[in-house]
Amino acid sequence: MASHSDTLVVFFGATAGANGDKLGSDEREIILLVWQIVDLRDKKVGELHRCVVKPDTLDLTEQCKEETGLTPDDLLEAEPLDKALQQFQQSVSSEVKCLGRSSCTLCVNSPLVIRQALHPEASKKNLVLPENFFSFVDARKEFQKCCPNADPVQKLTLASMLEYCWDLQKPTTHTLIQFLLSFIFFSLDHKFSCVETVKYKFDSGTCSKAEPVDSETVIRARGLPWQSSDQDIARFFKGLNIAKGGVALCLNAQGRRNGEALVRFINSEHRDLALERHKHHMGSRYIEVYKATGEEFLKIAGGTSNEVAQFLSKENQVIIRMRGLPFTATPQEVLSFLGPESPVTDGAEGLLFVKYPDGRPTGDAFVLFSCEEYAQNALKKHKQILGKRYIELFRSTAAEVQQVLNRYMSTPLIATLPPSPIVSTRDCVRLRGLPYTAGIEDILEFMGEHTVDIKPHGVHMVLNQQGRPSGDAFIQMKSPDKAFMVSQKCHKKTMKDRYVEVFQCSTEEMSIVLMGGTLNRSGLSPPPCKLPCLSPPTAYAAFPTPPAMLSEAALYQPPLLAAPRPPPTTHAHSPALAYYPPQPHLYMNMNMNYTAYYPRFSHPAAAGTSMLPQPGALVRMQGLPYNAGVKDILSFFQGYQYAPEEYSSMVQMSEQARSLIQPKEWLCL
Questions:
Q1: Which of 158, 295, 417, 486 is the most exposed place for a label (fewest CB within 10 A)?
Q2: Which residue has the higher pLDDT, 465 or 445?
Q3: What does the similarity note say (predicted)?
């Protein structure tokens, strides 16, 4: 941008902390503003104005006291920043008008006072800065342009520039005004035309993977609030110019934001200033700022889809992400859900449904709105019901659109699963966020009146790889309608001072999670596939050895679909209850997060019996002595019944097998 004004406003500022080359790096508030008008045409200067500013905190560093001559007492009667800015605006406007000029240009000795101090503080305090502070000239850069043989800009000081101008006569004062007057005399035909600007707002846009990105312009911000948008991040870096579409929010493997973002600036100078904001605050959280590379930025923000490029080609749009849509949702149903108070840009063309490579919907969509008001109205629909599912709505960015599309279109999430012979229905619910001390009784109490709708043996606790509760559980209901009702009535109810989330899901989804996969609102991932073990793990040596080689399908066989075996011979008074046999091959995938498939429980009202572990259930023992043998274990369980065929297999264990017993063992009771 090239412009020229005959009137300069020489501007200076100081903070309550570090000044000079570190101005603004410690996030301290402005306490002093100084300005003076310079008439370049008539080579005259106006009145010097000095305005003390009252900060929120009156603590001053020793460096500040020494350089400004101010004390905390001087700040008590001062005006706050908004009043000081009003005084500046009125003073400058009046003097410029008296000179018969229509415009003026701000002149500073360093951009730090504008970019690193004034704009960030005004943004935090929600102050609107006068237009003068969105463009300025840097006296050092102007001097470097006129005197290319002088020192580099970074090493230039007022003293060195004055000495260069007054080679014969040394100046008596080293002030910016003195320099400007000397510079004007030294270079009569110089035009102050290298005007730097501060962007009013962040411009969203797209980035192609083929676009070159300089690594010297990219940073990584870490520790962001999960609900942060690209505009929030741009506000954190207010005063620095971010490239168009230069904010890329990072997502985790589940498609959720992980608190990090990659930011691309217009040049390395602005990137270096951004690094000085390391551990500055966004609200109550401090943000870490590190260097990043262009390759990292392109990996997150770059895209190649023509569909996405066309969707994002409309500029100045607010993007909202919808998550959890019914797979059968149509554009018209989504538009009706949003309502007339939230008109979508260009109707159905402003919707982008996210799909798998085979065309199946993922339940995600992105929506364009032409203004902030429409977007805010749409966000009020957060967690309202569409069909039989509640919909989540979040602010989004162009880079997030690229990431989500890249993730779903690059790798099918469930392509490695064998086809299920049973059609899955959504007759299950998932409980997430359970207290780690919660048991079956707590879950049944939590379900309340809905316990009568639980299938027999339908409560499944999910354990982690250490065998401890993971905070999740699955419950099989008698019908999809019952599952839906539970998910609506019990969602976010409290259990032991913790609210529990309840989601409706299918039998297939439950099976995959029990086998070590992941399930969330963004998609379904299968468990990690490992090669079959040639022999069972040591801890399960008491079980019959399966065939040496197992098919991949066998590894993923859902345990809950296994057929129950007939009960052993019991006395006449003993209840005849089906139980599930131990299946060693299920334990071979050591990445499973459903370590104990037993015991299975049914609700007393449904089974007509007391709520007891079923025969054939496994009991895990922790803390066994290293020299404990089978007889010791059986003696410990004296008075309990156990499966006779399992007892006979354990009695045949040799001394060698006994030496393999670990501190954690399984016993089939």
A1: 295
A2: 445
A3: Belongs to the ESRP family.
**Dist CA 666 CA 541 (whole Å):** 10
| pLDDT tens by residue, 17-66 | 998 889 999 999 999 999 999 888 887 888 899 999 999 998 999 989 99
Higher pLDDT, 655 or 446: 446
Pair 15, 29: CB distance under 8 Å: yes
Q: Which residues of 318-354 are buried (b: 16+ CB within 10 A; e: fewer)?
A: bbbbbbbbeeebeeeebbebbeeebbbbeeeebbbbb
- The candidate with the shortest Cα–Cα distance to 129, out of 11, 233, 49, is 11
pLDDT surpasses 60 at 225 = yes
Q: Residues 6 or more apart from 375 whose CB is under 8 A from it? A: 318, 320, 342, 369, 395
- Report the distance separating Cα 346 and Cα 216, nearest Å: 38
Which pLDDT score is estimated for 187?
55
Tokens standing for residue 139: 């006296």
User: Maximum Cα–Cα distance for the chain, whole Å?
Assistant: 120
What is the total residue count of the chain? 669
Interatomic CA distance for residues 492 and 400, integer angstroms? 28
With residue 405 as reference, give the H or E element that holds it.
helix 398-410
Q: Is the pLDDT of residue 566 over 50?
A: no
Cβ contact 389:326 at 8 Å? yes
Is it true that the peptide bond before 599 is cis, omega within 30 degrees of 0?
yes
Residue 86 forms beta bridges with which residues? none
Find tokens 């030496």 and name the residue: 659
Could you tell me which residue, 659 or 333, shows the higher pLDDT? 333
How much is the pLDDT for 182?
56
DSSP-assigned letter for residue 24: T
Residues contacting 16, CB < 8 A, separation 6+: 28, 29, 30, 31, 55, 57, 59, 60, 61, 64
CB contact set of 636 (below 8 Å; sequence gap of 6+): none
Burial (CB count within 10 angstroms: exposed 0-12, middle 13-18, buried 19+), residue 458: buried
